[in-house]
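Sorry to interrupt, but I need a hand with the structure work. Can you supply me with one protein entry, sequence and fold together? No commentary is needed, just the two lines. Leave the record below and I will have a look.
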Amino acid sequence: MRFAAVCDKNGGILWNTKRNNVKNMVPLSDTKKPFKEL
């Protein structure tokens, strides 16, 4: 797992983390989009 997040019921990210020494393949702004669609 490279990225983990905890979201509220509105899709807002309350907490997130990623592995050390790993480059994100998808920008955080794009990662947030599916959470807002829930």
Observations:
- Residues 19 and 33 are 21 Å apart (CA to CA).
